[in-house]
Structure formats: C-alpha cells, structure tokens
Specification:
This protein is mainly α. Helix content is about 70%, strand content about 0%. It starts with a helix and ends with a helix.
Length: about 140
C-alpha cells in the first residue's frame, strides 16, 4: 500500500513538473511568434501564476494515469509519457474545443491548432514519463 501511495506521489509531482514545461514551451512559442506565423489564435502573453498553476494541476492529475497504465503497456519512461499525452490531447481536441464552440480539433483557432496541442502535451508527457521512470523502472 505504501509503495502505491509513493507511486502516485511521484506521478503527481512528475505531472506538475511536466505542466510547468508545458507552460514554458507554450510561452516560448508565443515569444518566437510561432502562433502568428502559422495563423493560430492562441496566446500566452506572459507566464502569470494562474496560467502556470492550471497547467501544473492538470498535468498532475493526468499523470496519475502513469501509475494505472504503466503495468499494462510495453512503453516505458518518456515513451510511456508520450503515449499518455495523447489522452489529454484527445480530450482538448475532441471534447473541450467543440464545447467551447471552437470546432473539432480547434479549427476555429486555426487549421494548425492541433499541432500545438499535440506539441504542448507531448512536452508534458515526455517530462512526466521520464521523471516517473527515473524512480520506477519496469
């Protein structure tokens, strides 16, 4: 039981760090002008605490799935995180954006919006899965 609690704690922390990386990559894309260049209506003008905290919390909660899915998947470490990152990406692209009337895959924000969603979540998954794997191999 204690090992299971420790696994959830490590996954939660790994997800928070991955969420921080997500926020930083999104902000860098804004700073480098990638959103404007690719005609995507996303913006992260500054790294305000509410924005970063929300990404960290969501990343932490999604990362709890690492504990549940790791025993059943062949992928390990950062690769497991990348595979897991498809779940929050699918949620945003197929459920959240349509409910916000932005269209399926966020087409109302630009035709390449889905690439940024995949990139940001892949960043989160790579970091979270890698950190989790450093503590629990196999």
């Amino acid at each position: 039981m204690r090992d299971l609690f420790n696994r959830f704690a490590v996954a939660y922390l790994a997800g928070a760090i991955g969420g921080l990386a997500y926020a930083l990559v999104a902000w860098l894309c804004q700073q480098w002008g990638l959103f404007t260049l690719l005609a995507v209506k996303m913006s992260v003008l500054y790294l305000a605490w509410p924005y970063v905290a929300e990404r960290m919390l969501k990343g932490s909660l999604w990362a709890l799935l690492l504990v549940l899915l790791a025993p059943f998947m062949r992928a390990r470490g950062a690769l497991l995180g990348l595979v897991l990152s498809l779940l929050p990406s699918a949620y945003v692209l197929l459920i959240q954006y349509p409910s916000q009337h932005v269209g399926l895959f966020g087409m109302g924000k630009g035709t390449l919006t889905f690439l940024f969603v995949l990139l940001f979540n892949a960043t989160w998954g790579f970091i979270a899965g890698g950190i989790y794997a450093q503590h629990y191999r196999g």
